[in-house]
């Protein structure tokens, strides 16, 4: 009892706000709209029927027919944004550094048919890189930044003309956003957006993806063009540069291990008003499945917790292999 007021007092009891699920939901402050989730798909040239993708749980190697079925299902879950990774046949891998040797006919036909099927019911993001096209699995050609940018700009124009809504360069070459933006604008595609992998780190957590995309480098590594995990400044500078060059959406990749980078970019005075995506990469996603397989956690609960952490850090969009699963639970 408070002697001055003659009133009973009680200690601060925060648990009152956690007493049951309805109260917890009522007072929660972090929300993940299904419209903010982006589901990646892998589509393979020459594949006759879809197959389970062993390196990433619950994902498939898709044909054009099977990915259309998957998109139809995702739309029933209110997920309407998709990121395509288009994987050519091994015989189509290119060892040359001649721009004219790079053809993307399969990519264009895939994008065209998907977009013609769903039109504006979906937002179609297309990953833009050369790692699946080159014989050595590198994102650059002949260790030549400028040559690589020219080929990427050619590929971006093909993707836009086929119907891609958002071109998503993941290569980390210098100057590629400016070159792609100029090429799109000059050819009448100034209405197409660019989502730049603006802060893509050289991470150990890409392994399952590289197996899926058949893009593991045959020699060396990608540390000369992907960001050093120890260098925060590079991540911020890369984002600011890409804004200057014409990016419409920024991205941090990986997501869960780089929440501090998401927070820094989202709260920087220049980039705070830019849409910011975060990519929960294959290794981050797969690790949850592996722990669940050993009964060390409940996958659905842990997965949702991971999405909340990314959202709290400041991500507006989340690219995740379990988008339809996340949409069911948020």
Describe the secondary-structure layout.
Elements: H1 21-27, E1 37-44, E2 51-52, E3 60-62, H2 64-76, E4 81-87, H3 105-118, E5 123-128, H4 145-162, E6 166-169, H5 176-186, E7 193-194, E8 199-200, H6 207-213, H7 232-245, E9 250-253, H8 259-266, E10 276-279, H9 282-293, H10 299-313, E11 317-319, H11 323-329
Helix pairs in contact: 3-4, 4-5
Structure description:
- This protein has about 325 residues and is α/β, with parallel strands linked by helices.
- Helices cover about 40% and strands about 15% of the residues.
- Strands 1, 2, 3, 4, 5, 6, 7, 8, 9, 10 and 11 form an eleven-stranded mixed beta sheet that branches.
- β9, α8 and β10 form a beta-alpha-beta unit.
Overall body shape: globular
What is the rounded distance between the termini?
A: 43 Å
Residues in helix, %: 25-40%
What is the count of DSSP helices, taking H or I runs of 4+ residues? Answer: 11
List low-confidence stretches. none
**How does the helix and strand content classify structurally?**
alpha/beta
Q: What are its keywords?
A:
alpha/beta; 38% helix; globular; 330 residues; 11 helices
């Amino acid at each position: 009892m408070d002697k001055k007021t003659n009133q009973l007092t009680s200690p601060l009891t925060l648990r009152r706000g956690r007493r049951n699920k309805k109260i917890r939901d009522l007072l929660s402050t972090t929300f993940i709209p299904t419209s903010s989730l982006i589901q990646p798909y892998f589509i393979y040239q020459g594949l006759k029927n879809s197959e389970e993708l062993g390196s990433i749980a619950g994902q498939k190697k898709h044909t054009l027919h099977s990915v259309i079925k998957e998109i139809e299902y995702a739309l029933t879950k209110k997920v309407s944004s998709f990121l395509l990774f288009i994987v050519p046949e091994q015989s189509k891998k290119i060892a040359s550094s001649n721009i004219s040797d790079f053809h993307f006919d399969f990519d264009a036909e895939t994008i065209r048919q998907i977009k013609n099927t769903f039109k504006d019911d979906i937002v179609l993001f297309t990953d833009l890189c050369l790692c699946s096209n080159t014989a050595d699995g590198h994102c650059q050609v002949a260790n030549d930044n400028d040559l690589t940018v020219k080929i990427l700009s050619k590929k971006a124009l093909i993707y836009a003309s086929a119907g891609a809504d958002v071109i998503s360069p993941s290569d980390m070459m210098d100057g590629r956003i400016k070159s792609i933006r100029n090429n799109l604008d000059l050819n009448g595609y100034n209405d197409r957006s660019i989502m730049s992998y603006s802060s893509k780190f050289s991470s150990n957590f890409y392994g399952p993806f590289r197996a899926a995309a058949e893009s593991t480098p045959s020699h060396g590594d990608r540390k000369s063009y992907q960001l050093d995990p120890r260098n925060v400044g590079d991540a911020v500078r890369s984002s600011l540069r890409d804004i200057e060059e014409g990016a419409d959406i920024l991205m941090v990749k990986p997501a869960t291990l780089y929440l501090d980078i998401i927070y820094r970019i989202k709260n920087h005075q220049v980039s705070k008003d830019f849409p910011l995506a975060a990519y929960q990469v294959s290794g981050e996603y797969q690790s949850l499945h592996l722990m669940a397989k050993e009964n060390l956690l409940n996958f659905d609960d842990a997965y949702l917790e991971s999405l909340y952490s990314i959202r709290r850090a400041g991500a507006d969009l989340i690219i995740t292999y379990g988008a339809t699963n996340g949409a069911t639970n948020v």
